[in-house]
Design brief:
Arc Repressor Mutant, subunit A; four-stranded antiparallel sheet
């Protein structure tokens, strides 16, 4: 995948782009800053960020400082372990005020995402289930898209097309070949659909991209763009 952190789609009625992310960017940013500022570097262990199949975790060394309780922590009370580093972050405008990070994280995730250990603090952010479903569905279908189906999908837009119009677009004159190699596979993969499904042989029958078809089309375009960029890098 060229960009797994963002899936964009359009609602059919309101035509407004809605952005979905695997994780909340603000919460992750605050977690990383928090880990760096409060990490116990005397343990000679740096903060770590790990990405798994269903979550991303941020871990820092050291327990809560100076008898700070978990309740204090969640209420935004903070005692920076590395004051000079905190000052640098404030000068760089990466931190607005002391203790503001955890409340921001709690705006998107609940307290169960935090795990307090004797020598470490770990924050785990589960991936958005809706985005995971879209990614899995799109990636699975893309594996079975043939060269002919890919060509058909890329040439379609938000309009509905008669079979003859689609044959002209892919430059195929043989109806049976078009049906078996282009139309039927795209229908079976649910990338396109009939506008009159209860009358498949209607002379007014047209075909349009499904929501899945639009996502797969975008994925194919992204893959082609990534390949092109890689080729340009190699040629340099």
């Amino acid at each position: 995948m060229t960009e797994t952190n963002r899936i964009e789609y359009k609602e059919k009625l309101i035509k407004e782009r809605i952005e979905k992310r695997l994780w909340d960017g603000v919460a992750l940013r605050e977690a990383i800053i928090n880990a760096m500022v409060h990490n116990d570097y005397t343990m000679e262990v740096a903060p770590t960020v790990e990405i798994f199949s269903d979550r991303i975790t941020v871990t820092s060394a050291g327990s809560l400082p100076n008898n700070l309780t978990e309740q204090d922590f969640f209420e935004g009370l903070s005692i920076p372990r590395n004051k000079e580093l905190m000052r640098i972050f404030k000068d760089l405008e990466l931190v607005e005020q002391l203790g503001s990070g955890v409340p921001r994280i709690l705006q998107s995730y609940d307290k169960s995402c935090f795990r307090f250990m004797d020598n470490f603090l770990r924050m785990s952010f589960p991936f958005n289930d809706e985005v995971i479903k879209i990614l899995a569905e799109t990636e699975y279908v893309t594996e079975y898209v043939t060269e002919q189906v890919e060509k058909l999908v890329l040439l379609m837009n938000n309009e509905s097309f008669h079979r003859d119009d689609l044959m002209g677009k892919v430059e195929v004159k043989h109806k049976e070949y078009f049906r078996s190699s282009y139309l039927q596979p795209a229908l079976e993969l649910k990338l396109i659909e009939m506008t009159i499904p209860d009358k498949p042989r209607s002379k007014n029958q047209k075909y349009r991209l499904t929501d899945l078809g639009k996502k797969v089309k975008q994925q194919i375009m992204n893959n082609k763009q990534q390949i092109k960029q890689n080729e340009q890098k190699i040629s340099k």
